[in-house]
Structure formats: C-alpha cells, structure tokens
Sequence to fold (210 residues):
Amino acid sequence: MNKKTRVNHWENIYITKNPNEVSWYQKTPETSLVFLKSFNLPKSAKIIDIGGGDSFFVDNLIELGYQDITVLDISGKALERAKTRIGEKAEKIKWIVSDVTDFEPDTKYDFWHDRATFHFLTDEEDIEKYIEIIKNSINIDGYLVIGTFSEDGPKKCSGLEIKQYSEMSMSVRFRNYFQKLKCITVDHRTPFGTIQNFLFCSFKRLKSEC
Fold:
C-alpha cells in the first residue's frame, strides 16, 4: 500500500466510524498509563503519542498535568475529532498530521508512546526507517513504550495486514539503541466483545549504541 492510499484508508475510517465503532477504542488506556507513571517523569517532560488519532491517551496526559504534549497521526480527520472533544485545552497540544515514516521532529522527546502504529509497518524498509526516527528523536535516558499485536493476536486490523511481535523479536529490533525494561501481554476487549492480545514493551534510550 502506497502512502497516499494509506492516508485515504485512515481518513475514510475516521469519517465513517464513531470512536466506539473501532476495535482500538479505549476510554481509559490503563496499560499505557501504568507504564507512564512508572517512569516518574516531570510534568515538563516532552511527550509524543504516535498514531494517537482520537484516542483518550492525550486527555489523560492533560489531566495528569503534563505540559509539553505532541500527538501525531496520519489522519487529519482523527486529530480534528480529538481537538473537538478536548475543547480549549487542545490549544496547548501540538498536533502533527504525518505518516510516521515521513516524520522529521524538530525536538527530542523524553517519552515516545506508540500503541498500535508500529505493527502496521510490514515493509522492512519502513520498519527500519521508523526505528531510525525513534532512535534520533528520544533523549538519552528517555523512554519508549510500544504496543503491538502479539503472536497470539490478530493478523489483520481495520482491513490491513499487520506484523505480529514477540518479546524476543521486539527486543531484537531495538537492542542496538535501547535497554529493554519490561514486556507484558495484555488482552484488549474491543467494543464488539472480541479479545485482542497485545504485547507492550518499554525501553530506555542508551547513552551509546551497541
């Protein structure tokens, strides 16, 4: 799937479906929040949510008092929906419409969060490019949390092929630049009552590359 088709696909999803009509809907992203709180980041920490769409993670970041928040998504429609929901507080957030493999950050982050974007990258070139972007965009001793479908999870999502990960395969991907802290599997119950098994892994940016 080329990038234009990818954009059109996600724009159509957010135009035609309500928030609770997509499988990834979570009113409270508990797993992501548990990881975040474990890092004891200062409220001034630079945080980015990759593929944030109109998810509620940003709402929770605001409620927790974080002051430097960026949300990136390929779908402008998704971000507009999030802005509308959040209201005036949306003005304090930096919103970026971009395919993540085209992202050129103008800052470095203390916490990079990605729930269910990474596994949509199935082309090796795209995967390597994304990892390179992450490596160059997180401060030394900064944190990375990635949630993907596990090997027991779905093989497709939203009509698209995905790439499943195990703790080992995820660790291998990032071992040259990050120290693995923790990996867990979590069952996510969709609004339709089905169960999706996710792998969440947290990493810390190394001071030097291996």
In short: The two ends are 33 Å apart (CA to CA). The chain has a mean pLDDT of 95.
